[in-house]
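User: My collaborator sent over this chain with a note saying "see what the structure looks like." That's all I know about it. Can you take a look?
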Amino acid sequence: MCVLSLQQVSFAYRTRYQTVYAVKEVSCALEAGALYALVGKSGSGKTTLLSLLAGLEKPDTGKILFHGNDLRTMDMDVYRRVHASVIYQNFNLFPFMTVLENVMYPMILNKKAKEQAQTRAHETLEQLGLGANYWRRMPAMLSGGEQQRVAIARTIANDAKLILADEPTGNLDTENTRNIVALLKEMAHEHGCTVVVVTHDEDVANEADYVYRMDSGRLVVDEK
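Assistant: Without extra context I'll predict from the sequence alone. Here is the result:
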């Protein structure tokens, strides 16, 4: 089942002095139950494309359809709160909330009962190696890798069917990278999610079902 469809999508960054096309006439279809890796050199357009999929930017030309609905006609707050969860490269944790509160927050926004949200947060944090001794810590008390795992837990616990991740393993060691990739594969293959991962790590890309390579704003599907 097609979840996201891109139709001749282009996007440019404009200043007073120049126009730089970051995404050029990209067309593709993203299916439920699959893990996609988006790779390419720095500046190739990967993160911009992810921002477009998340509705953080709007295409200059072309369309992005979510279950057949043009993103430009949808309420983006609802889209990102309910349907699409984003794992940001800079974590975006709330500094004055505990680890547990950070993970629970999107679920509470989506009207999940506090007890259910807490149970789900506990389970997900445990899966990512963050046991009870972490739950009351503030983000500033964590390493970069630990903050990354909290950000991933927050996304996965919310049970969105579209997961968009910008370098989710960039701050992690080999063992935690394997754990995160395994969990993202589980979300795709066992829970029917569509998972898109921007990565520089070829080992992570090799675990994906499909590899899309960005080159100067254009998209190429790698043969696996």
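A starting point for your reply to your collaborator: Residues 125 and 153 are 6 Å apart (CA to CA).
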